[in-house]
Amino acid sequence: MDRAEAQAALQACIADENTYQFTHFSHRDAWELGHALVDACEKMGAPLAVEIEVNHVIVFRYFPDGTGAYHEQWLRRKRNLVNLLEKSSQRAYYELEVNHEDQERDWRLPRSDYAACSGAFPIRLRGGSVVGVAAVSGLPDPGDQTALLNGLRTYFAEHQ
Question: What Å distances lie between residue 129 and 33, 109, 124, 134, 138, CA to CA?
Fold first, then answer.
């Protein structure tokens, strides 16, 4: 991917983050979003683990057959990155690409604890704070992000 493509992808990530902001977010909302994400993941035709965290508490998790501890580790690393930077893990990936930076060398974020790749998204209240993270894991980039955005689109069409 050249720099212009990475820049365009970065702008798309920023636009998604501006679009998918919540007016409120409760544990019940996490349940509804979680089900929208599970449905979107199932339509991708591969097993994807789904997780939603609110205020640093995991309030929704689904590990279909074919997923497990390996996916749990990816979810943790993606979630850590979103919690720290308050931006999607995909956006962080493209920021690194555009700036020709390395996650460990330039951002001092060890890959063992943080993952700048597709699949985790901030749950941001409109015009305000990040209160949680929605994440999926199971497909190579950019598949996780595609599943995640499809689930967000469905949720927002029905609830926001």
Answer: 18, 22, 6, 15, 28
